[in-house]
Write a structure and sequence with these properties.
Elements (H helix, E strand, L loop, with lengths): L2 H26 L24 E6 L5 E13 L3 E10 L2 E7 L7 H13 L5 E3 L4 H6 L3 E3 L3 E5 L6 E9 L4
Antiparallel strand pairs: 1-2, 2-3, 3-4, 4-8, 5-6, 6-7, 7-8
């Protein structure tokens, strides 16, 4: 066998192996199917920790509403360090993520894009997703069950998930 033919066979083998590697990488990528897929914690069963802050209030319908607040041990979406669970009914909560950081992470952008592409019509919006608008406090989006906003007085970003059914209490 000539040296030229051996070199051609080696190149073909390398190209075939490279293509197989690309196909394996494509197959191993998992895409989120739900907003809950974006979070490290299982939000349907997140434990109400002993060290969380608990407060109560009476809402306009005369029901007691409990607020559970605690720090997260792992950042959500690369920036959210605190969570508040607001009990709106038995085992039904609004979940609020808050941060003191004023930055846009890739994870946050991916979450917003997912919401934009999968949650339907936006109910309310202000500003486009940009560093300039974040610096000015001009960003807010609300869908049926998700609200992403920037507090105008502090410029901190928060995400609220409305009406999440909990599997444990």
């Amino acid at each position: 066998m000539s040296d030229f033919l051996i070199i051609v066979l080696i190149i073909v083998a390398i190209l075939v192996l490279a293509q197989i590697g690309k196909n394996k990488n494509k197959q191993s990528v998992s895409y989120p199917k739900s907003i809950l897929d974006f979070f490290n914690y299982d939000l349907r069963s997140i434990p109400l920790q002993d060290d969380c802050s608990v407060s109560t209030e009476i809402n306009i319908m005369g029901r007691e509403v409990k607020h559970y607040e605690f720090a997260l041990s792992k950042l959500e979406l690369g920036i959210f360090s605190h969570i508040e669970l607001i009990e709106i009914d038995e085992n039904k909560y609004n979940v609020v993520f808050t941060t003191t950081k004023q930055l846009i992470t890739d994870e946050l952008v991916d979450f917003i894009k997912f919401c934009t592409n999968n949650l339907g019509k936006i109910k309310y919006e202000t500003g486009s997703l940009s560093i300039d608008n974040l610096n000015k406090g001009l960003y807010c989006r609300q869908w049926e069950n998700v609200w992403i906003e920037q507090n105008l007085s502090t410029a901190n970003i928060s995400i609220t998930l409305f009406g999440l059914q909990r599997t444990t209490k």
